[in-house]
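Hello K.,

You asked for the raw outputs rather than the summary table, so here they are, unedited. I folded two proteins back to back in the same session to keep the settings identical. This is the first:
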Amino acid sequence: MIRKHALYISQQIAAKTVAKVLKGRNLTLALPESQSSFPKATPQQRGGAADLSYGTLRFYGEVNAYLQQLLEKPLADVHVNALLLVALYQLLHDQAEDFTVVNQAVKAASYAKPRWAKGLVNGVLRNFLRQQVQLQANIKANPAARYAYQEWWVNKLKKQYPENWAAILEAGNVHPPMILRVNVRQSHAKEYTQLLSRKGIEATHIGKAAVMLTKPMAVEQIPGFSEGVVSVQDYGAQLAGEWLDVHAGQQVLDACSAPGGKAGHIAELADVQLTALDNDEKRLQRVTSNLSRLQLPVDCQLGDAAVWGKGQTFDRILADVPCTASGIVRRHVDIKWLRRASDVVSFTQQQGLILANLWHLLSKGGKLLYVTCSIFAEENQQQIDSFLKNNNDATQLPLELTNDSTNNLKIQHGQLIPSAMHDGFFYALLQKH
């Protein structure tokens, strides 16, 4: 835990990070950049800054709605604005004492260039504590603020999921669990869960090869991780390997493969000739690294899935296409604020091009598994329906689970509804005839 008198360092780093993200910077890049600006920060302060950054952005819609009520006019200084957002997040959701949060935020503001920042931060935060009940009533009347998403996002889910849109939004605001995938070549989920128990690590066997840790831990400390016994992978993502239906000797293509989690699972399930394709050289290196840890062979190819592969054919193709990532926002909280409604259209166009090209690479009788980590219908079943209308040699097959884990899954016609157990993925299995 961060010492109370050092909390302002974490607040400063988090404010710098939040300001970068709100300007359009990806959180995974913004956080280390901001941390590097404070070379003397302790590991605890850096970790605290990460927690505050993720938390503030997770609930940005709510926190910002409170802030706008407290300000007479919008703040021109983005860093002071971000510091207030971080402190308000703490007052609303963190376990730190109110006095400590305010005191440390004021100290953090004293390092800001505008001299008025210190007094403003102090006044705004104390007004929040005095007026919180009244302010909260106004928040409840605004769904975008109440659920902490952009208004267009809320409205889209209301239309597409009239019965459970609120539950989906709330699921995206909770901390995700740490799920492991057990390598069936080396162990089994039940056996591995027992191993963890003997080592004093609490875990639950939730699926065919899925084990959920009660408490997250560094991968270096996970028994068997470095030897390739387990990998970290969301339970919902683990269904790709099962539904692709791979068999020994088949030619298999994992398109848009990085970072390689699904490729690793495919290679664990059967002795196939696996090709991993991605258009980003650095991300492709991660695929190679992940497969090396598993000690499984893979042919990594650099290329654009929308145009790659002239003259080649495959028995199985995993089309894990680029998407809005609207189903994994609990892991990537910045997506809720960086994504725009127009992005849905651009992604569907890109997906259509990739799907059309990959279909040409699929052998007759072969199967293609279309996957997104989105919950928007335009990228999912609507995309598949459009494809089927234009391709008479394609049939959509039913998805069947071959394990006893159905009680842990929330799935509707190929769409995994985000829940405590898994993120929001969409699957569609197509066969060529």
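The second followed immediately with the same parameters:
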Amino acid sequence: MHVDLSVKNVSKHFKSFTAVDDVSFEVEKGKFFSILGPSGCGKTTLLRMIAGFEEPSAGSIYIGAQDMAEIPPNKRPVNLIFQHLALFPMMNVADNIGFGLARRKESKAEIRKKVADILERVNLPGFGPKKIHQLSGGQKQRVAIARSLVLDPTALLLDEPLGALDLKLREQMKIELKKLQVEVGTTFVYITHDQSEALVMSDHVAVMNEGKFEQIDSPQNLYSRPASPFVARFVGNNNCLAGTCVGYGDGLAQLQFSSGEKIGARTDRHFTTGVKAELFIRPESIIIEPEKELPELNRMQVAVSSILFDGANSQLLVTSPALADEMLISLPQNRQYEHIAAGDRIEIGWDVKAGNCFEVQ
């Protein structure tokens, strides 16, 4: 395994505030690695330390096999792309992309060749003479990426580069960005607060909270097997059911709500009777009006508060005496639910293995 980036026990302190707290991870060559977390969790500070704009208070950063201690930003084999792309409006596309090569004193013929090659790779052939103001938002993104990739960095660092785009263009660009990364084969380290971006594009994702990594895993495992309540809440939509453990055995915890209602929850964590617990259930894991003969289902009567129509992402909002909060339920596209209206009482159910259960610390 060839590792392009290795971060070992890195911390960053600003006086009494710890922005990054003993973080370690590795990124294999050619992988798309994302750091996902809310604003203020430390992810931009971590990226700035990798780029060399901040010095770690403790720990070490290796790019390739080289220790980056005291190596200035302009000497590191990485390039950083910000949300504000900082393209030069007075230059055309080719001059923007070739700017770093010209500063390296490469020949004009070599710069022309490299710029033409990278424009092909980012699907902008023939765009060299165009002015920046003639480009769409997505095309500007690709020019910014081409300007970095033409310098052949070991890793490309991206600091929420899609944040300034409108929703539809952002959806298109995350697919394009993943395809581009696979095509060029450069290692990408991407930070975002948007879990959809991280899940769609990444080979591995680190979920960051208050300066620490809560979990590093594949997008699939983060979604289906979160390691903490924070990850369960932050990655995708989840309903949280709070109760008390009234029994545990053979991998099954029995939770009781304040209403007296009980449900079962499969878990690979040991639970002690009497502890407070939270069960996280995805909206798409809940069955509306389940058939009576389905085994191993938790069943519950709920009242429909409202129908949230959003095409293929439509949901029901429901309440129950057992629930402290309202619950979201996905409306599957393979069944018709026109007969359900706000105010109706319906039965719902979910498999006891469908949720993720945690003790409340």
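The longest strand covers residues 3-14.

Happy to rerun anything if the numbers look odd on your end.

Regards,
P.
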